[in-house]
Specification:
mainly alpha
C-alpha cells in the first residue's frame, strides 16, 4: 500500500494535536531528555547540511579550476598550436574578426584625414607668413616634407595594421583554445557533481530535509514574496531579455555561433514551460502544504 504524501484532515486540527504533544512532553517525566535529544538532532542536521552544501559548491569549483588551468588548458594549447594551423574555431569568429578589422581600418583612415587636414592648415599659415622672395623655396621644402611625411604615414599605417592583425590572431587563437577547454572541463565538472550526488546521497537527503524545514518555517508573506521574486525573474515580463543575455553568454563560453533564430525560439518557449510548471506546482502541492501562502500569493499579485 502506497504511503500518502499528505496527512488527511481529521476531526481535530493538526495544529491542536501538535500543541498538545509539545505540552505533554514538557509536563511528563523525560521531557528534558527529549528536548535535549531534539536539540542534538537539529544541531547534527545543521552541521551535516552546511558541510554537504559547501562540498557541493566548492569541490566542483576547485576541481574545475585546477584541472582547467593545470591540465586541460596546456594540453589543448599544445594540440591546437602544434597539430593544426587554424586560428578560428568557426565562421562566427571570422565574422567578428572581419568586423573589427573593418572598424580599425575606418578608424585609421579617419585619423589620417585629420592629420592631413592639420598639416595643410599649418602649411597655409606658414606660407602666408613667409617672405615673398622665399615663397617658392618654402613651398618646395614643404612639398618635400609632405612627400616624406606621406611615406612615413604609409609605413606607420602598415605597421599599425600588422600589429592589429597579430593582436587579433592571438586573441581569437586564445579564444578558440579557451572554448575547447571550457567544453571539456564543464563536462568533467558535471561528472564530478553527479559523482558527489551519488557518494553523498545520505547527506543530500538531510540537506533536502533541512532546506524544506527552513523554507516552510518562513512566514506566509515571506514565502509569497520569494515565490513572486523567482517567478518574475524566470517567467516575468522582463525575463526574455535575461534569458537572451544568458544564452549569449553560454554560446560565447563554448565558442558557438550566435544563432538569433535559436535564441528567439528558446525565449518564446522555455519561459512558457517554466510558467506552466510553476502554476502546476502551486496548484498540486503548495495549495495542500500551505494554503495560506497561496492565498497571500494571489493577494499580492492582484
Amino acid at each position: 500500500m502506497e504511503k500518502q504524501a499528505f496527512e488527511q484532515t481529521g476531526l481535530i486540527p493538526r495544529s491542536i494535536i501538535r500543541t498538545f504533544d509539545r505540552f505533554k512532553k514538557q509536563i511528563f517525566p523525560g521531557g528534558e531528555f527529549l528536548v535535549l535529544q531534539e536539540f542534538r538532532i537539529s544541531r547534527y542536521q545543521v552541521l551535516v547540511s552546511v558541510k554537504c552544501l559547501l562540498s557541493l559548491i566548492f569541490i566542483p569549483l576547485l576541481f574545475n579550476f585546477f584541472v582547467k588551468f593545470f591540465i586541460l588548458l596546456p594540453l589543448t594549447n599544445c594540440f591546437w598550436n602544434t597539430y593544426q594551423n587554424k586560428i578560428f574555431l568557426n565562421s562566427y569568429q571570422q565574422e567578428r574578426a572581419f568586423k573589427e578589422i573593418k572598424f580599425f581600418e575606418e578608424k585609421i583612415y579617419f585619423e589620417s584625414l585629420l592629420e592631413d587636414e592639420l598639416k595643410i592648415f599649418k602649411n597655409e599659415n606658414l606660407s602666408s607668413n613667409s617672405i615673398t622672395e622665399n615663397k617658392k623655396c618654402l613651398n618646395d621644402s614643404n612639398l618635400i616634407e609632405l612627400k616624406n611625411s606621406c611615406a612615413l604615414l604609409k609605413e606607420e599605417k602598415e605597421s599599425k595594421f600588422q600589429k592589429k592583425f597579430i593582436s587579433l590572431a592571438n586573441q581569437y587563437n586564445n579564444e578558440s583554445i579557451e572554448s575547447l577547454t571550457n567544453f571539456f572541463i564543464d563536462f568533467l565538472t558535471l561528472g564530478t557533481l553527479a559523482l558527489l550526488f551519488v557518494l553523498m546521497k545520505a547527506q543530500i537527503i538531510i540537506l533536502k530535509s533541512f532546506l524544506t524545514e527552513s523554507i516552510y518555517s518562513l512566514s506566509d508573506t515571506t514565502k509569497s514574496f520569494l515565490l513572486i521574486l523567482f517567478t518574475d525573474l524566470l517567467v516575468g515580463f522582463h525575463s526574455p531579455k535575461g534569458w537572451e543575455f544568458f544564452l549569449e553568454l553560454i554560446l560565447l563560453h563554448f565558442g558557438l555561433p550566435k544563432n538569433q533564430e535559436f535564441i528567439f525560439l528558446f525565449v518564446a518557449t522555455f519561459p512558457v514551460l517554466l510558467d506552466t510548471v510553476f502554476k502546476y506546482w502551486i496548484f498540486r502541492y503548495l495549495n495542500k502544504i500551505s494554503p495560506s501562502t497561496v492565498a497571500t500569493y494571489h493577494n499580492m499579485i492582484e
